[in-house]
Amino acid sequence: MGRAKRNDGSNLSSEALDALRSSVSGKVVVKGQSPEEEYRPLIERWNRMHIKEANIIVLPESEEDVSATIKFVAEHNLDVSISSGRHTYSGPSSGYGLIIDLRKLRQVRIDEENMTAVVQGGCTAGEVESAAEAVGLRPVMGAVNATGCGGITTGGGIGNLSAQHGLVADNLLAARVALADGRIVVASDEENQDLFWGIRGGGSNFGLVTEFTYKLHKADPEIYSGFFMLPADKADAYFELMNTLYQDYIMKSNGKFACIGFVAAVGGNIAPGFLVWYDGPEEEAKKFVQPIIDLGPVYPGSGAHMQRHTESTDWAHFEKLFPPAYNRIVGTSTQMSYPLSADILKKTAQEFKAVVSRHPENLFVSKLMIDLRDYSKIASVPLDATAYANRREGCMIAADFIWDKEELDKEVMQAAKGFMSQVRTWVKEDGEQRGIADVGTHVAATTLYALITDGDEKLVSVFGPNIGRMKELKKKYDPNVMWDKWYPVDPDV
Ligand SMILES: Cc1cc2nc3c(=O)[nH]c(=O)nc-3n(C[C@H](O)[C@H](O)[C@H](O)COP(=O)(O)OP(=O)(O)OC[C@H]3O[C@@H](n4cnc5c(N)ncnc54)[C@H](O)[C@@H]3O)c2cc1C
């Protein structure tokens, strides 16, 4: 039991590969055997730093295919990864062994009457949003609709509707899960409740979700959303506005107003901005963004307007900000308690600028995010109700360092770690001084959001007090640690 050394499949005989091919209806693509033009696109990842040359990629077309592939993995003790939207920061959907690539499992079925969506495990958030929007409903998904349902749901999932409806995982009603022995089971409040607990925040530790059933919400077709970009000389006022914006606007909006401060470092300056969403009519929305406009002048071409919800989460908006070549990324995050210290925010921005300034021509699309959303709905769920352990009413501070040159990988990764470690120290010291080290509803909640990390955090920082139960579940559902890519729990350690 426990973590065993797995093989990468490079020594599999042609008979074994033929047996795999004949056990599934979907494609089996093999490195060096399948045409390059078929193989290469399959190992592409949003974060190009995590492109790995997997030996075998299976593209299941049914649950039976998933099941047969898992049995093959177990039989040959293969290294295995699951890939859904391939949009993770830290690379757990990449590997050198066998990839179960869910891109062919993309059906969405909406039940308008019961307000639910039954979604196959390879769907993107956008596919669910579009299908729901067509009948006046909305799921809870993340800010960017290109992310896969697989990663965002099993890791927790925070979106612009989370202040009203909680995490993506909190809106999961049931799932069908392929276990390490290839069996497919239902996980819900009625069946396999322990597994249902584990897949809501425990990532891929317990199995591969072939189908999610989500709760949907009635909604107006449009939302007020956009970016407000502000001049560099307003940076100090910008950081000083954060507490007012949070306390007097966001927390008084019944969850309708969500806002993320976006800071770039351009030309040696701090360039501040806000991404906003208001889930209500424009006249109402304008009152909420007025303090941002008052900071002005707002850069021409930036600003918010009424748009379809699916338009507000469209990846195309974001792509304009990120040249496609700049896709080597490290994401790190921490959490700060309210009221925020403007002083720490300013120091954090300066430190962020210092890292970017080492290679400005490469790191200029990097961004610092100050997430001013109302987390009380998420924090109202008891910490032991699901595996997700970051339920607190803090402000997430996250940084994405983005570059394009492979030779900078090591240096930027290290700089990102050093940066976040410094910020965490400031936050901790400040919290201790003010006696607010932990003001979350749940005292023992963790202080990081595991979906925005470099993948290298301690397990206890990710799962907090839920780690013990995670280990029990791992023993039951994956004792040989087949699923070992995203914060894998070892039942024996
Ligand atoms: C541009 C961008 C914007 C983002 N915005 C947000 C946001 O607003 N809110 C937020 O919460 N997060 C956000 N994230 C983080 C994102 O939610 C995670 O990176 C998530 O893991 C992506 O899921 P994926 O399926 O696309 O990733 P993949 O790389 O395919 O998989 C990621 C992990 O999930 C596991 N997994 C995938 N599918 C399944 C499945 N069916 N069953 C079991 N395990 C599975 C994989 O094994 C892997 O460990 C963002 C990421 C990016 C790149």
UniProtKB/TrEMBL annotation:
Its cofactor is FAD. SUPFAM superfamilies: FAD-binding/transporter-associated domain-like. Keywords: FAD, Flavoprotein, Oxidoreductase. InterPro entries: FAD-bd_PCMH, FAD-bd_PCMH-like_sf, FAD-bd_PCMH_sub1, FAD-bd_PCMH_sub2, FAD-linked_Oxidoreductase, Oxid_FAD_bind_N. Residues 49-219 form the FAD-binding PCMH-type domain. One of its GO terms (molecular function) is oxidoreductase activity. Belongs to the oxygen-dependent FAD-linked oxidoreductase family. This is FAD-binding PCMH-type domain-containing protein. It comes from Orbilia javanica.
